[in-house]
Amino acid sequence: MDNRFRGIIGITAIIISIFFGGCKNKQPAPADEVTAIINAKIFDGENVIDDTTVVIKDGIIQSVGGEIPEGAVIIDAAGKTLMPGLIDSHTHTDVDGLKDALKFGVTTELAMNGRTTKSERKQVAEQNDIADMRSPEMAVTAPGGHPTQYQNSILIKALRWLTAYPPKETKEAETKFVNKQIAAGADYIKIIIEEGAFVGYPGLPVLNDESLTAAVEAAHAKDKLAIAHITTAESAQRAAAAGVDGLAHMFFDNPQTREVIDDIASSNMFVIPTLTAANSIFGNSGEVIASDERVSSKLSEEWLASLSDSMNIYPEGDLGVVFANVKALHDAGVDILAGTDVSEAGEGYGGLAHGASMHHELQLLAAAGLRPIEALRAATSVPAKRFGLNDRGRIAAGLRADLLLLDGDPLVNLSDTLNISAVWRGGVQLTAKK
């Protein structure tokens, strides 16, 4: 479930992996050569456009449409669709996870808990064979609140210095903690409002209203988004009242009244439903995606086994109810962002895999009632806009060349997002295996 402590270990592994092997795996900066992708159907992150050519140089989209520069390397994309690289708006990740993500066209992962370092961030940003990443550093939670229930393992105890949460619940403590995360490089602030039923630990301590509001205000004082982990309608309404900018997860409880939907819509919050996580929590495996050859050919046996499993924490949950709530929010004008909550492979974390689960998430968003183009926006332009990632998420001159080339047309058949022909991250091409 969200902000699992073992997920933090994955973040820690980035430091280890980069220290011992990052330099070896690092690719050179994009070459000076110009690449022209021609004859493509182009979804620019918002709409299908009339132009069919994109020119890339020095990691940047130089032009959309127009003349092809003399001497350009030509990629004929006839019969293919070109779109922005996908953004997974909720992950817990490490270098291996970022590498798998890129194989599936996920060019950016937004982590949702775990300390990083400035040098690590720099190296991840420059390492073009893995997805880019943003992080909130450590999440704000109540003393003894989620995810501190996972602190019992020996490894977690050994890493206690890395996983410190606010030691007490006061306005001053939350403000100081938020400022500490921002000073450490947090791109946004994560706040936990988790009662525990949907993470298998009913009755967990939850932040009081004063502390919740203090954390939000401290984030906003430094021009940072405040993202709230919630799994119930009550916690969603508390988040809205406190001025939170977005919800990580969907409320997984009963069908919601118009009041709850209106509270969220009027607050201008966005919602990351993490339907793949809900699917797994309710006892449904990711076998439908793991058995697809377009997925199985790219993942290790360990990850395939984990993806084929489920968390099964709350089997009484009703995915149809969650779908209905997502559709109600979407119809009310709430921005829906695609995110998976993927962390690591293994028992207790089943049903999810980096990169692959983003495609499952898109299919589940469609099952909830979003049109294919709306699901694709939820993984490209909408998260870029809401998280202030102004250099990506769209295909336009001057933006990063984070691109995904697909055989077929995902605007007609959403499953075609898995027909990956090529991926570019910062203008560096990764050719995917079929």
Task: Summarize this structure briefly.
With 434 residues, the chain is α/β, with parallel strands linked by helices. Helix content is 34%, strand content 16%.
Care to describe what's here?
It is a single chain. With 434 residues, this protein is an alpha/beta fold. It has a single domain (85-391), classed as TIM Barrel (Alpha-Beta Barrel). Helices cover 34% and strands 16% of the residues. It has 16 helices and 17 strands. The protein has helices spanning 5-25, 95-103, 118-126, 154-158, 171-183, 209-221, 233-242, 258-266, 275-281, 287-290, 293-296, 301-307, 319-331, 356-367, 372-377, 381-386, and strands at residues 35-38, 41-43, 48-49, 54-57, 60-64, 73-76, 80-84, 86-91, 106-111, 132-134, 189-192, 226-229, 246-248, 270-272, 403-407, 420-425, 428-430. The strands form four sheets. It has a six-stranded mixed sheet, with no helix packed on it. Strands 5-4-1-6 form a four-stranded mixed sheet, with no helix packed on it. It has a four-stranded parallel sheet with strand order 11-12-13-14. Helix 5 runs parallel beside helix 6 (209-221). The longest helix has 21 residues, at 5-25. The chain is globular, with a radius of gyration of 21 Å. The relative contact order is 0.17.
List the helices and strands and how they pair.
Layout: H1 5-25, E1 35-38, E2 41-43, E3 48-49, E4 54-57, E5 60-64, E6 73-76, E7 80-84, E8 86-91, H2 95-103, E9 106-111, H3 118-126, E10 132-134, H4 154-158, H5 171-183, E11 189-192, H6 209-221, E12 226-229, H7 233-242, E13 246-248, H8 258-266, E14 270-272, H9 275-281, H10 287-290, H11 293-296, H12 301-307, H13 319-331, H14 356-367, H15 372-377, H16 381-386, E15 403-407, E16 420-425, E17 428-430
Helix pairs in contact: 5-6
